[in-house]
Amino acid sequence: MNYNQCNICPRECKVNRLDGKTGFCKETAQLVVARAALHMWEEPCISGENGSGTVFFSGCNMGCVFCQNKNIATGHAGKVISIHRLEEIFFELKKKGANNINLVTPTHYMPSIVKAIDQAKEHGFDLPFVYNTGGYEKAEAIRNLEGKIDIYLPDFKYYSERISTKYSKAPDYFIQANQALREMVRQQGRAVFDSNGIMKQGVIVRHLLLPGCLDDSKYIIKYLYENYGDSIYISIMNQFTPLSGLTSHPEINRTVTKEEYDELVDFAIEIGVENGFIQEGETQLESFIPEFNGEGV
Predict the structure, then answer these.
(1) Where would a tag sit more exposed on the chain, N or C end, judged by fewer CB atoms within 10 A?
(2) Distance (Å, rounded) from C-alpha 129 to C-alpha 201?
(3) Is position 60 annotated in a ligand binding site?
(4) Domain residues for 278?
(5) 123 domain residue, yes or no
(6) Where along this sequence does the record place binding of [4Fe-4S] cluster (predicted)?
(7) Is residue 274 situated within a structural domain?
């Protein structure tokens, strides 16, 4: 995995990011971070009461039309930092009481993040690292993270090639996400928790229900449970928030209804899913999305 002919993710743009070129992710090889702070809105076993030490990286290899972090995903927010500074941020978040270090949208910076993790561990860093990804990963790249990442937190967005092409220009999403997930599960095995119920090792797969895509979501939940069973936790999310720019996709320019979400949760229960998380309350409010103002960077 390298920056000079970038082949880190399935896009394989082959641009020289070391020379300042950008590919689909819209980022060069310079690390850009938009926020580093305690985050309380992850799954309970990730955030706990103290919060997850979350580092939001700028840029993204997914480009979903419904992106809820568009300012950073498109590279319009964030500060350039060094690998050494990233290591310092890990220790600063630990000092604030973080349960873990939560690397959000890390894929396109994988080589730099690996170096920061290695340096931190050489200096005695002992919190778990969480790899929080959109799921569009190469299994080969995930293999490079073995022994460095403790918790994998991937999205599993799409089953249908038609839907993944329409909303993320990724016709091979299901194939790539599934191969990457198999590697994540191989590395982590069954989940491990501490006495306070905080995850120390394991895999949580997130699925965001999209408006009008209930059947696709059922296929995903069924596939995940039949193929991975209780070796993963499944987090079923209803927080889809239609922000500006969705007028070209009016079919998803709305929130998910309670009836849609309840039907998906009931389906998961009916097929036997027990290791899971669901969302309740007003998670679709825009205030659920943090400010990307450079805090902690």
Answers:
(1) N
(2) 9
(3) yes
(4) 25-288
(5) yes
(6) 60, 64, 67
(7) yes
Over the stretch 102-136, which tens digit does the pLDDT of each residue have? 999 999 999 999 999 999 999 999 999 999 999 99
Q: Which residues contact 213 (CB under 8 A, 6 or more apart)?
A: 163, 252
The 3-class secondary structure across the chain, one letter per residue, is: CCCCCCCCCCCCCCCCHHHCCCCCCCCCCCEEEEEEEEECCCCHHHHCCCCEEEEEECCCCCCCCCCCCHHHHCCCCCEEECHHHHHHHHHHHHHCCCCCEEEECCHHHHHHHHHHHHHHHHCCCCCCEEEEECCCCCHHHHHCCCCCCCEEEEECCCCCHHHHHHHHCCCCHHHHHHHHHHHHHHHHCCCEECCCCCEEEEEEEEEECCCCCHHHHHHHHHHHHHHHHHHCEEEEECCCCCCCCCCCCHHHCCCCCHHHHHHHHHHHHHCCCCCEEECCCCCCCHHHCCCCCCCCC
Q: How many domains does the chain have?
A: 1
CB count within 10 Å of CB 106 equals 22
Is the pLDDT assigned to residue 77 strictly greater than 90? no
Q: What is the CATH number of the domain that holds 172?
A: 3.20.20.70
- Per the listing, tokens 């970038």 go with 6
Q: Which amino acid is at 151?
A: I
Give the type of residue at 136. Answer: Y
- C-alpha to C-alpha distance for 42 and 51, rounded to whole angstroms: 8
Residue 28 pLDDT class (50, 70, 90 cuts): very high
pLDDT at 285 over 60: no
Q: Which of 113, 126, 138, 115 is nearest to 56 (CA)?
A: 113
Residue 122 lies inside a defined structural domain of this protein? yes
Percent of the chain residues past pLDDT 70, beyond the cut: 94
